[in-house]
Amino acid sequence: MRACLLSVGILIMSAGIALITKTYLGTSPISSFGYVLSIAFPQISYGVFMTAWNIVLLLGQVVILRRNFRASALLQLPISVLFSIGLDGFSYLFSFVRPETYPGLLVMLFCGIAMLAFGVSCTVVANIVMSSGEAFVWAITSTTGWNFGHTKIGFDLFSVALAAVASWFLLGSIQGIREGTLAAAIFTGLFANVFIRLMGGAREPLPKRSSSDQKHDTNQELSQERLAK
Asked: Quick one: which of 7, 33, 224 has its CA closest to 122?
């Protein structure tokens, strides 16, 4: 059930970011670098660039955590692939939605932010694995002792700055970063907090299996195989 909630949350997040992006008022900070690259290299999809970016963040966790890196963090890979597939799919679906007035674009923008926030809330409530961006920030804070919230803001600013530099060098101007980027940075967390409270908060972490339990399960499997023979 929690895995289903996580999967649904990831898809809703991808839908929200796709809707935000289609307003052409910017995109979320974490997605801004991938979005700029997709503009500069249109033959490669937004989702593919986001998968590559998430892999970079995962490798960053390996470098930062070293021996403390846990194999369970590799679950970020299938989550990233699911997110990217959803992002490309919803980007195509929403390509037919284009309000002609600025107020209409703002309505569309905040609908996307609300969807993104709800998707984030689902992943938080499921409490199975963090997204690559949040896990990267956690890796930094767990190693340095820095405040998570402040570090997350710093990481978002770094992502936007990286996107701006890439846009300037690849496109000759700043593209993909506008008022929508700022709105997503401010309101996504606020909306997500409301949704998380309405959903009853995050579930308890999944229990870790002890080595004795794993050995017991292995012995049971071997016994069943012998009986089957």
From this structure: 7
Return the percent helix, strand and coil in the chain, to nearest 5: 80, 0, 20
**Domain range enclosing 60:** 2-228
Tens place of pLDDT for every residue, the chain, 229 residues?
A: 888 999 999 999 999 999 999 999 999 998 999 999 999 999 999 999 999 999 999 999 999 999 999 998 899 999 999 999 999 999 999 988 888 899 999 999 999 999 999 998 898 888 888 888 888 998 999 899 998 878 888 999 999 999 999 999 999 999 999 999 999 998 988 898 889 889 887 666 666 554 444 444 444 443 344 334 4
Tokens (6 digits) for 44? 């490669």
Find the Cα–Cα–Cα–Cα dihedral 25, 149, 114, 43, rounded to 10°.
50
Within 8 A by CB and 6+ apart from 55, the residues are 77, 80, 132
**CA dist., res. 137 & res. 140, Å (int):** 5
Residue 182: closest CA among 77, 26, 39, 47 = 26
**32: number of Cβ within 10 Å:** 26
How many separate domains does the chain show?
1
* pTM, entire model: 0.83
